[in-house]
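ugh ok fine here u go
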Amino acid sequence: MDSLADTLRLFQSGALGRVEMYARLDRLLASTPESVSSLLRTLNEAHRRAPLPAEVYGEVERRIAQAIEVRQRIGQRIGESSRQRVGDEETFVQTNPSSPTQPAGVAGDGANPPVERMKGVGDTLNGRFVLEECIGFGGMGTVYKALDLRKLEASDRHPYIAIKVLNVQFQGHPKSLIALQREARKAQTLAHANIVQVYDFDRDGSMVYVTMEYLPGKSLGQLLRAPDFRALPFEEAMKIVRGMGKALAYAHERGFVHCDFKPANVVLLDTGGVKVIDFGIARVFQKAEEAPDVTVFDPGSLGALTPAYASPEMLENREPDPRDDIYALGCITYELLTGRHPFNRLSATQARDAGLRPQRPPGLGHRQWRALRCALAFQREARTRSVNQFLEEIGARDLWHRPQLLIGIGVAVMAAIVVLVALRLLFPRHAPGQVAPSSPAAEGTTSTGPPSAQAPAAPSLPAVSAALAKLPCSALVPSIKGQTVRVQGYLAHSVGKSHLKSTLAALPGVGEVELALQEVAEDKCGLMRVLGRYWVAQRMGTAGNGVAIRLNPGSGARGNELKEGDTLMVDVTTPDYQSYITVDYFDHDGKVVHLLPNPLERETLAPPRYTATIGNLGNWMIGPPFGTEMLVLMATPAPLFDGVRPDSEAAPDYLRALESQLDRTARAHGTRTIVVDFLQITTHARR
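structure:
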């Protein structure tokens, strides 16, 4: 008699095509007496022996689930209280045979309710999301790449999203919809560059699902389980460890423990980034009074966890703690450095009871080994206290903070070239008052016709720049197209747009003036005087392309407006080269608050083109006095100050010290290595 194992083996050997394999699978499922756990175990054993394509694995899993559901509905009761292994990790889900639940939205006559077909690849959810490809699977559900028809209709450049659909076994849990709603709501608050962005949750008939951003890449589990994987070089491994650690540290600051951290829940992006996914069974370890529903439903009651990466405390069903995630992070770090699990994939309790001890990875320094060993401690009290401490001690932070000689020389050379080019542009070799050529065709050409027959002369960029530089309390960047001068930037309210227009209109060749400005109050004039020239230089040249500071969507802002009680969270993007990041907040009261560096984040050397979120919910809250305030991002080739400055200080005092340090940096490294961006916000009292 044919079996599922035989069918999958024939497919993997090439003896069966995909269509023939699915037809044979359906015949087997219609007659097999095997339980769902047995079938899924067979599927996973076949997948581990020779990995199946993700879409094939997902489709086989879906057909198994559908066959079991049909049996349940026609009265052929299938009850299990055993644990079921699902996905490419050893994740177990506890089922309850005594309370089978009919999915919502399905009508029937009691004994023989109509069967609702499970949806899979090629189907559409709620008339909007077309499931195109199965890209993952785990204890809670199957993940699909889906085309969002609404985004497609709007000509969105990125119309694809990811959708996690709950497994049938999980849907049968009476609180499954509550679990998914909790997951979506919690994940929406975790706005961080290393955490997947979750959009919403919904249902289509009996199917409930979460929508999230689509991540082009592969899971860390795929990397570690590849037949040829051995170990990564230390620095390459630390890039991944740092990305994972930053995500977990951010979540822990928000009061969440992941509770199922494992390689399958880490995505290595094609662009080189790292994202942590599936905070599906994360539980609040800091139970705030303002969140009355945290005790209504505890996702840990679903019993979904991964024994190879779960701490002893999680396996013993103790209250979650950030150090549970640190144990999992330690296991994954060990695998990256050695190519094998520290305890041969035994659970923590099995390894502890057997007296196992991890072996020191070859070439790992004493300090790094001590850090890794502490993260893998079986007793929570002996384990590393925080993720940031682990990153510091293992050397993940050092990867970004270690100066690279060749990079430094390259940046210096490029900076010198940029400065020479900029000087040539700003101060061309022609007589005062002479108009610079406005196009390659004009260069070296002499007109002999009468003045009335010549085309009107274009405005001179140096002349426009010189006029703008004379305006006090401003940072203005011009561009010229024909006889139109366009100016963007920041202008003092006391100067006014009308005065700027009349000043430019009086220049030779200026026919029209277009303005894209933000007006600044007088209390920001010192800020403009010290930093405005760097902001202008960046936008007039090519240095620092891409650097930006903007409000994080999780802050609750309306445009650039925040109200009392909102959280200040900003996203910063670094230049095209390694740089030290400084973020300051100049408030309406004449003080400056130093957001970065701060006592908890002293080292701020960031990699090129890196995006990170500064702040988190409940950390920096908007309060009085209210008005127009300014956030400043500075990227420099060296730290601006030797130590961490006070949390806040008078803005004039700080600007005097800052000006001195910037002058010193410019002399040592060049002006163009200093990159500045402004973010002006308006704060209001809560109405």
